[in-house]
Task: structure prediction
Amino acid sequence: MARRLFIAGNWKMNLGPAQAAGLALELKAALASNTALDVAVAPVAVSIPAVVAKLKHSGLHVAGQDLHAEASGAFTGAVPGEHLREAGCTYVIVGHSERRQLFGDDDALVAKKVKAAFRAGLLPILCVGETLSQRQAGQLEAVLDQQLSVAMGGLAADQAAAVTLAYEPVWAIGTGHNATPEQAQEAHAYIRGWLRGHFPAFVADQLRIQYGGSVKASNAGALLTQPDVDGALVGGASLKAADFLGIIEAGLAARRASRS
Ligand code: PGA
Result:
C-alpha cells in the first residue's frame, strides 16, 4: 500500500516570530504547487501564530513541538493542545528524545500526551528510538516494544492509524551520524511488525513512519526509498529553506526514480 510521503521540520528552540515567518514564506513560495507530499513545520510556541498566518491556504501544516497533558489549569509555562489547535496547528510532536532526556517525559507521560493530542483535535507525531548504549546492548527491539506499547497501547484502531511515528535513534539526532538506510529500514520494519501484532491490519498499512536523525539532502533519497520509511522528521536541516527544500526534492526524485 502506498503511503503518502510526510516530511516535517522540527525547528526546536530556534526562530522567533519574525524569522519563523520569513522561513514560512520561503517554504510557501517554493511548495505552493506541491501536491505530492505532506509537509509540516514545528515552530516554537510563540512563533506559531506568525507561521500560521503566512502558511494560510498553502496546504502546509503547522505542528506544536510538545503539549501539556491537561487542557487547562495551574501549570505555569505549559501549552495545552487545545491552544495549539486554536492557534492553527494540525499536528503536535510528542515524546521527542529531547523532551524525554532533558524534561523528564517518560513513557507514561508520553502516553497521556498522545491522548491529549487527540482530545484537542491534533494528530500526534510520536517519537520513539534507542540510545547508543541501548543499541550496543542489543536492546533496540525491547526499547521500541516498551515505548510503543505504553504510548499506543490504549488507542482505538482508528486513532492508532492516524498517528505518525517518528523513529529517531537518539545517537543520530544532531550528531551528523544518520542511521544507514538499512538500519532505518530494519527498525521501521520492526515497528510495522509490532503494529501488525497489536492492531487490525489497516493500522500497520496506513500509519506513516518517519525517520529522524541527521537527515539532509545528501542522504534523504536513500532513506526515503526504503519500503517502510514514509517520511522524515528533520531538525537542523529544516532551519534553512534551501536545506529543507533540498531534502524534499531529493526524496521525491529518488522515489520517482525507484518506481520507474
Ligand atoms: P536533526 O534532528 O535532524 O538535527 O538530527 C532531528 C530531530 O531531532 O527531530
Notes: The radius of gyration is 17 Å. The first helix runs from residue 17 to 31. The first strand starts at residue 5 and ends at 10.
